[in-house]
Amino acid sequence: MTRPSDPLRVLLVDHAPIVGGVEMMIRDLLTELDPVRVAPTVVTDTASPMRGKFSLTVPEMVLSLPRLNRNPLAALDWLIAAIRLARFARQSRTQIIQTFTTRTHLISALAGGLSGVPVVWRMNDDTLPRSLAAIAGRVPRRIISVSNYLREHYRSSLTITDLIPDGVPLPMVIPQAEARRDLSFPPEMLLIVLVARIVRWKGHRVFLRALAPLAADHPRLHGLMVGGWSPSDNVPGPLGGGEPYQKELESLVQSLGLTQRVTFMGHTSAAARVFAAADIVAHTSILPEPFGRVIVEAMAAARPVVAAQAGGALEIVEPDGTGLLTPPGDVDALTEALRKLMDDSALRQRTGEAGRARAEREYSLKLMAERFMQVWEEVASPT
Question: Which of 88, 172, 282, 359 could form a disulfide with 299 if both were Cys (CB 3.0 to 4.6 A apart)?
Fold first, then answer.
C-alpha cells in the first residue's frame, strides 16, 4: 500500500456525557498520532464536559449529538445531527469518520451514507443492540474492537476485523512517599485503591465488604475509592448509580465500621499519583468489563492488580503473573486475594514489575496509535 503524500483528514467523533475511559483514550491517542500521516479533528457534543479539553493543538468542532429514543422528535434531532456531520465532513474534505460510542456509531452511519466519507467504528462497549448493529453495521468500512470479549459479543451481528486495545501513557516512576505526601496519605499506610465511576455494576459494595474483615487484622489498611458520577447516573438498576448510590455506599461504610478506614476521593485528574500512592489496585466490576483501562493504567504504574474474572480483564491480566483474578461479585475470594498480596510485599513487587513490563509490551500509546493509523490508511487507500 502506498501512503498518501498529504496527511489523512480524520474526524474523531465522541459525545462524552462524562469524562470516561473512551475520552481518556482519545485524548491520549491525539498526543501520539504522527502529524505527517494524520490531520485529526475532534467532533464532540455541545454538552460534553470534554469540550476544549481533548487537545490544545487539534481542531475541535462542537455539534449537538442527541440521544436516540422512541420520541419521534428525538429521531428528527438525530437526523439533523447526521446531516450536519455529513455537511462538515464534506466541507472539511474529511477522508475518514472514526466513531467510538453507540450514539456516534449510529449518527455516523447515516452521515457516512449522506457524505460518501468512509466510516470506521471502534467498539468500546456492549450497549449497541445486536439487532440494530446488524443493520447499521453494514455502513462502516471497517469495525474495530477494543477487546476479544466484544468481538465475540457481536460475532453474530458485526464483522469485526481489527483488535486495537487501549494504549496508556507509561508514567515516569513517582516515588510512593512523594505521591502520598501530595495526596495527604501517611507513608506507613497500606493503601488499596478502587478507581471506578460511581455506578452499581462497578462493584463498590463488593470492594467494601471485602475490606471489612481485612481491616480488623491490618490496622494500617486504608481503602481509597476514586471516581465521580454525572446527573444521568441517578437512575436505578446496575447501570445507574450517581448520588443515590454514593449515599448508599457511605451508609455501607458506616455500617461496616469503616468510617475511618475508607476515603471517597471523587473524580481526579491526578490518576498517576493515585496509582503511585497505592500498594494494591482492585477492580471489582460485577458485569463483564468491555476492556478494563484502569487495570492497564495500574499495571503501567507497576502496581499489582486484583481484577474481576470476566470480560476484557481476562485478556489483560495474566493470573499469578501480572495480577490475581477473582469471580465477579465474590466477596470472600476478593478478600483472600487482597490478603495474599497484603501479607507478601515481595509478591506485590514482583507482580507490579511484571504488569509494568506487559503494559510496555502490549499496551503502549505508540502501539495503539500505529494500529489506528494503519487501519485509516488501508481504508483511505484507493487500492
Answer: 359
